[in-house]
């Protein structure tokens, strides 16, 4: 909290009122930042407060047992706000009678247990935490079906195809599309489809081979991609929904003819005017989708978005989002995607996140901004720099030999007792550090830790991301959380003589 860095909030914030009196507990290094955030909060919602700076440098190292020995809560306090890192152990048993640390601390403070709260782990989030007005959008709803294609499925073993399908469903796919090999018929296509259906998947079959389509339908497939004038006659006997496409992408008259044919024979269908890659009429193809929706407002539509994501040298998340937004606006309620090429390897998950965002945005009439950061991957939604005076305060206030790293304003800062190194080159900073007498505690494992964190900090500066020591860089839905390496190691770092 109140000193260490993460976006996570701990307890629910108190309801502020004119008689609220909050007592904040923190460590030495966080005092300046904490008081700065409180001053911002009380301008919006006045409340009384006190601050107790405990005799410890880093607030994250406060334990409930240690806190009890130092806690001094003024009379009249209505809420005790502890460092966010206390949350993990606050409800553990604290004595032989089985009372929790929360209860023991509440008794010592002469407060109800529910008035002992843990604030955000990063004090720069304190104002937002105390606001208590932020309502998280409901992103559970969506109206676009995701069809995930397994390309050239017959070239794989059936068990492998079933495993891939399970992973795709876990990422958000509603239907698995079995992509056949156009160069040769798969005589065992029914076995593939049967195995997938047995695993609980809804299946579409992607083939122009009428035998493959009929066999797949018999095995449980419920959608055929695709039909036009070349194979629509066979669709009459399938008893299955199909995707109607034009004979060539720019020939909407042929699509009209196929629609009329299927309608006469009561074949259920959805329409796909074909999305063209950039360089081959991308803009015109979007206009065709709009035109088909105008001509056939009552018919279901599908868009195969892989023609753009797989054939464009750009990370797929942004492309998927924009295409899903287009689909939402034009009531194109299914998309076909694949994730073969490396830059599109998470397309299904991206589409799942995007369809929820665009549904909320369009149904609520709000821009898709500040709704979720799961598709903000290369950079971060917001940077939270320390004020320069805060960095100086931290530097001058450190009394121990543990190293703090701050990365902001194109500069790396390495701080410890009597040490404040800064620059843009981590190698130069480490070289300077090792030349100082104060560096006698940098053993190989400590040097590895510093190198790892400095590398993360350098990446953050290069990309314009937020760097918080001992926290994972944020990569949206691809973020992999890290252990708190520094906090776990501090007690093992040998002291300077």
From TrEMBL:
* GO BP of this protein: tetrahydrofolate biosynthetic process
Q: Name one GO cellular component term.
A: cytosol
Q: Please provide, alphabetically and separated by semicolons, the GO molecular function terms listed in this UniProt record.
A: dihydropteroate synthase activity
Q: Which InterPro entries match?
A: DHP_synth-like, Dihydropteroate_synth-like_sf, DUF6513, Pterin-binding_dom
Domain Pterin-binding intervals: 128-392
Q: Which SUPFAM superfamilies match?
A: Dihydropteroate synthetase-like (SSF51717)
Would you tell me the protein name for this molecule?
A: Pterin-binding domain-containing protein
């Amino acid at each position: 909290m109140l000193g260490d860095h993460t976006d996570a909030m701990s307890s629910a914030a108190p309801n502020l009122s004119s008689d609220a009196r909050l007592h904040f507990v923190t460590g030495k290094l966080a005092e300046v930042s904490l008081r700065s955030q409180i001053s911002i909060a009380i301008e919006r919602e006045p409340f009384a407060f006190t601050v107790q700076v405990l005799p410890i440098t880093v607030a994250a190292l406060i334990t409930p047992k240690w806190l009890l020995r130092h806690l001094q809560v003024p009379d009249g306090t209505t809420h005790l706000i502890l460092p966010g890192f206390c949350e993990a152990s606050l409800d553990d048993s604290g004595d032989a009678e089985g009372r929790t640390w929360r209860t023991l601390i509440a008794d010592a403070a002469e407060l109800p247990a529910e008035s002992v709260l843990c604030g955000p782990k990063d004090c720069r989030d304190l104002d937002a935490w105390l606001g208590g007005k932020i309502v998280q959008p409901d992103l559970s709803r969506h109206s676009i079906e995701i069809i995930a294609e397994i390309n050239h499925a017959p070239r794989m073993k059936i068990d492998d195809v079933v495993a891939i399908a399970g992973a795709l469903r876990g990422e958000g796919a509603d239907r698995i599309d079995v992509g056949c090999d156009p160069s040769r018929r798969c005589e065992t296509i029914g076995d593939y489809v049967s195995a997938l259906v047995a695993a609980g998947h809804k299946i579409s079959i992607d083939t122009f081979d009428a035998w493959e389509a009929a066999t797949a339908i018999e095995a449980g497939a419920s959608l055929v991609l695709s039909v036009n004038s070349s194979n629509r006659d066979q669709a009459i006997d399938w008893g299955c929904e199909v995707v109607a496409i034009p004979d060539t992408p720019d020939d909407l008259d042929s699509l009209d003819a196929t629609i009329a044919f299927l309608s006469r024979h009561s074949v259920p269908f959805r329409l796909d005017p074909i999305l063209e890659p950039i360089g081959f009429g991308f803009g015109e193809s979007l206009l065709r989708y709009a035109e088909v929706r105008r001509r056939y407002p009552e018919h279901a539509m599908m868009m195969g978005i892989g023609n753009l994501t797989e054939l464009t040298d750009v990370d797929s998340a942004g492309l998927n989002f924009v295409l899903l937004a287009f689909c939402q606006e034009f009531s194109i309620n299914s998309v076909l995607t694949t994730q073969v090429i490396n830059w599109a390897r998470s397309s299904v998950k991206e589409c799942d996140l995007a369809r929820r965002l665009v549904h909320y945005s369009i149904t609520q009439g709000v821009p898709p901004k500040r709704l979720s950061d799961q598709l903000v991957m290369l950079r971060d939604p917001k940077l939270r720099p320390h004020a320069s005076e805060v960095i100086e305060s931290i530097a001058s206030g450190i009394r121990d030999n543990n190293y703090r790293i701050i990365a902001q304003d194109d500069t790396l800062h390495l701080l410890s007792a009597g040490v404040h190194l800064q620059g843009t080159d981590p190698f130069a900073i480490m070289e300077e550090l090792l030349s100082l007498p104060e560096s006698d505690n940098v053993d190989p494992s400590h040097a590895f830790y510093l190198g790892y964190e400095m590398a993360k900090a350098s990446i953050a500066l290069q990309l314009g991301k937020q760097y918080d020591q001992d926290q994972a860089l944020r990569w949206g839905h691809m973020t992999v959380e890290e252990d708190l390496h520094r906090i776990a190691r501090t007690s093992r770092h040998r002291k300077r003589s």
